[in-house]
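hey so u asked for the seq, here:
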Amino acid sequence: MTPWNNKKRVSNLLIQICCVMAGCVIICPVLYCISMAFMRPSEIISSPPTLIPGSLYLENFYIALQRTQIMRFIGNSLLVSVICSLVRIVTASLAGYSFAFFDFRGKKFLFYIVLGTMLIPADATIITNYFTVSHMGLVDNYLGIMILYFVSAMNVFLIRQYFMSISKELKDAAEIDGCGSFRFYTQVLLPVSQPVLVTVFISSFVSTWNMYLWPLLITNKGEMRTVQVGITMLNFAEEASYGATMAGAVIVLVPSLLVFLIFQKHIVRGMTSGSVKG
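ran it, structure tokens below
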């Protein structure tokens, strides 16, 4: 084995060790949150801190379910996340199809404008967005919660990059056989683009599931709250319990974690498959 290969193996090993250490640091608060969800109140406030519960104390989960409408909040978040993710697939795939397969004046400029919107912080436009949505009468409305998340420049870029890796001769052959542009999009392009579409769906689902500030502003009724907003009600309840708050956080974490773990391979495949051409 050459000295170059030895250096490469050592550098790869060091990089992997650093990644593992960073992952452990990042996941420690999550593991402690899960541990606190099963602790008794005396264990949570003990000094020195208790890291592992002495027994599985399930009363925290009962308190979290009793003090808040957490199942209603989960239902609201599921509805919002699924619809936003599906609409994002439609809007991003149509935009990506136009940017990848059609030639028209100003195409590159428009594409750069789309990418430029990614540089604008969401907090910078939240006030104007609130006034716009409230004037539309969408306060305390599911559409008002979802409307800002129907389009994502990142998803447009991702799908466009994937479509660029598909040969344009495929579209030319389809047109020779009498296949129109929309039919090619629905019956040819989308079926062969399942990896990137699954990636867009899952990434959109997780991001909309975790959104907090916008649903907090646009909803006033308790039954319209999404789960990230609703779970904070445990902090303001009478006799607020840290254990119950952590138990609620664990309940909220489970759906998005399951979705990510189940479709992890699809996400990696979709992120890398469109990196050949740009």
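The chain has a mean pLDDT of 84. The two ends are 37 Å apart (CA to CA).
lmk if thats what u needed
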